[in-house]
Design brief:
The protein is mainly α. It has one domain: Glycosyltransferase (Alpha/alpha barrel). About 40% of the residues lie in helices and about 5% in strands. The protein has a two-stranded antiparallel ribbon with strand order 1-6. Helix 3 runs parallel beside helix 5, helix 5 runs parallel beside helix 7 and helix 7 packs parallel to helix 9. The longest helix has 21 residues. The two termini are about 20 Å apart. Keywords: Membrane, Signal, Transmembrane, Transmembrane helix.
């Protein structure tokens, strides 16, 4: 999510997760071209702090100018989900990042300075903060102001872009739907001022139907311009279509819903309740179709999704694979979710260590959604690892207490559970060096519009 209009609808949320359109790709390409460690100034929300001057309470040690609010929100939300009460300074930092109008940007180096017209307000960062603070409780005014701001920048089609004023995209619309749901707002009742389109109307706009090529039917595209199936957008939208956000509760019992791909007859969707309908049945069918597309893509690549970032197309995309697991779990597809989850347990540890709090949070939330213990995730205690990236938690519930070696002792170790190989570690290192960190495998990984 960035300052230039041309970039504003190209990147995360992770802007990064957050962070979401093509900004990550644009920033990386620009940084590589310039041979510099800093991303374009257009993305900056303020001076970039040195590692020695990172704010107290902030999670992670990387430059927060692109994903500070995003990674903080995911970290706090994941901790809360597994029974960890974050340190007060960590929560205070997130609350203090809000602009007076209720919006958030990726990072404000000096929260005492009021946001102005140059501040790059970001729906993804704002919606992530809403989900975290709503879960933690006690911040009603902050959350209400943020939700009101999100409603005020809803596009006429019912959706949202990462940067207000830009065309809607599936990822931004999905993360806002998650924020609305987390605060008790019904997305089907949140409508655009002009046209009266609902949030779900906006989201289902990006669904590819029977007029698309067969291999892409049921998938979602990131944006309508140059529409092509996009696994990242599909994972976000399949979750959002069900009215769910980052936290998906594990299914009760042993229920295992079958994956139902979109079927077409005579060029039209077969069966009742067409997916383009924003009604409950249509949304469920849309989520099912998206899940089927994800299962197909995961199966083609050994149960993981592939990166679409320039220069890393042959590398696994761990973050988006975790998002896919959450999407499948949200739809009740227990067996389908277990296969990529098993891949994550074997291969995601090294990636998380390289990328920090938001990466650990994604894995914690994927484990939670599938009823898997995040404290024994492929031999790694994800909760301990996440806690180690920020200030000491205020409290840890009995079941969340860590065991074994402290993850702090393992920082920088890309051996255990890494399974990604030297090439992948080098690629991740390059991404971090380019100044966009988790953006590359976060929710805003939009290198190309299709796989």
């Amino acid at each position: 999510m960035a300052p230039m209009a041309s970039m504003a609808h190209q990147a995360p949320s992770t802007h990064p997760v957050a962070f979401l359109a093509r900004r990550a790709a644009t920033a990386l390409a620009a940084a590589v071209a310039l041979g510099a460690a800093a991303a374009p100034a257009a993305f900056a929300a303020g001076p970039s702090p040195s590692p020695q001057k990172l704010p107290a309470g902030l999670y992670g040690t990387k430059d927060p100018q692109y994903d500070g609010v995003w990674r903080q929100s995911l970290a706090l939300l994941a901790q809360h989900t597994v029974g960890v009460r974050p340190a007060a300074p960590a929560v205070d930092w997130l609350v203090g990042q809000q602009c007076a109008d209720g919006s958030y940007t990726a990072f404000r180096a000096d929260p005492g300075t009021a946001c102005d017209a140059k501040t790059m307000r970001d729906t993804n960062q704002t919606a992530a903060a809403v989900q975290a603070l709503a879960a933690l409780g006690g911040h009603g005014k902050t959350v209400t102001k943020a939700v009101d701001w999100l409603k005020s920048v809803q596009n006429d089609d019912g959706g949202w872009s990462s940067m207000p004023g830009s065309p809607s995209d599936a990822n931004s619309t999905s993360v806002v739907i998650g924020a609305l749901a987390a605060t008790g707002h019904k997305p089907e009742s949140v409508t655009s001022k002009k046209g009266g389109k609902t949030a779900y109307d906006g989201l289902l706009t990006f669904r590819l139907g029977c007029d698309a090529k067969e291999e892409g039917r049921g998938a979602f595209t990131f944006q309508l311009k140059g529409a092509a199936p996009n696994a990242d957008a599909t994972a976000a939208a399949a979750t959002g279509a069900l009215g769910k956000g980052f936290v998906v509760a594990p299914a009760d019992g042993a229920a295992d819903a079958p994956v139902k791909p979109l079927t077409c007859k005579d060029g039209a969707e077969d069966g009742a309740g067409k997916g383009k309908s924003a009604g409950a049945d249509g949304r469920t069918r849309a989520a099912d179709g998206g899940a089927a597309y994800l299962v197909d893509q995961l199966g083609r690549n050994g149960q993981h999704l592939m990166s679409t970032m320039p220069g890393a197309e042959k590398q696994p995309d761990v973050g988006n694979t975790a998002d896919a697991v959450v999407a499948l779990a949200a739809g009740g597809h227990r067996s389908a979710a277990q296969r990529p989850l098993a891949w994550l347990e074997k291969n995601a540890t090294g990636w998380a260590r390289q990328n920090g709090p938001a990466a650990y949070a994604q894995l914690v939330l994927a484990a939670h959604a599938t009823g898997t213990d995040p404290r024994a995730f492929g031999g790694t205690d994800l909760v301990s690892a996440l806690n180690a990236t920020g200030p000491k938690p205020a409290a840890v519930s009995a079941e969340a207490k860590t065991s074994g070696k402290d993850e702090k002792d393992k920082k920088g170790d890309d051996g255990e559970g890494g399974g990604m190989g030297v090439v992948w570690v080098v690629a991740v290192g390059l991404a971090i060096g380019a100044g966009i960190g988790f953006l590359l495998s976060g929710r805003r990984n939009r290198g190309k519009n299709g796989l």
